[in-house]
Specification:
Elements: E1 2-5, E2 12-15, H1 24-37, E3 39-42, H2 50-57, E4 78-83, E5 108-115, E6 123-127, H3 128-133, H4 137-143, E7 147-150, H5 153-156, E8 175-178, E9 180-182, E10 189-191, E11 198-201, H6 206-220, E12 226-229, E13 236-240, E14 244-248, E15 257-264
Parallel strand pairs: 2-3
Antiparallel strand pairs: 1-2, 3-13, 4-15, 5-13, 5-15, 6-12, 6-14, 7-8, 7-11, 9-10
The structure holds succinic acid.
Length: about 290
Amino acid sequence: MKIEPMTSLIGAEIIGANLGNLSVSEFEVIHDAFTKHLVLFFRDQDELSPEVQISFAKRFGNLHYHPAAPKSKKYPELFVIHSHKNSKFADGNGWHSDVSCDSEPPLGSCLQLHVLPSIGGDTLFANMYAAYETLSSTMQRFLSTLTAIHESEHLYRGRYEERGVDDTNKIYPTAEHPLIRTHPVSGRQSIYVNPSFTTKIKDLSGSESKSLLSFIYNHQQRPEFQVRFRWSKNAIALWDNRCTQHFALWDYWPDERKGNRVTIKGEKPFYRASPLVESKLKISDRNN
Ligand code: SIN
């Protein structure tokens, strides 16, 4: 297997891995690359059966069940990503970390796309360690004292109606998480708020919360922190939701885009203080 980084901060392509048949040592290489590059891409794969994709994802931990999307009886852990000419929404079409409204949000997600639009449908991923590390130490310290509220009703209610989900009596998850979270494997800090699920910073006034979130969103969406993946048929992306965000562009309507996502369950986000880190990346705010 070969690991080819795609940018200096995020994303690597793994060449020569057969995800349906990985040895223990190959899996260790992939796991280390996942910790280092945050998002891994695998091209030239066969279309994985649900069983194979599920058993690959299970090597990282227990699986997560989506709180809103329709589920098949046989594979309830499979989240079908599908948009087409009659879709009113496309999943992931905004910056987010998957299901951050859950009290134990996903560790990671593994998506394979089987049907691609003729052009477009790229996914952007952004490094939230870098977003944290490029803040001033004063801002790092301040943000690490804060807790944010993540909600989902505004996103999910009615969303899957077109796929037969009746959610009239459903209660959707909401959770409070530290605004800066510590990664349980790397020990690094990252920003853990996103414009899709985060609705407020606790203990701030409405306008303070709105202004601070708007500053953070602007900062975390800088292109320096991003990698953009152009899909090929049956390519797979595997991302770490604890330290990244992503945005699936819906720029291909009325074309179809379809695939399967299997999501790995995570733990309750926590913040553990550590020495402040200054990024080696020099970003200029002259243009802000
Ligand atoms: C998602 O899981 O948020 C969707 C990603 C994608 O469709 O590229």
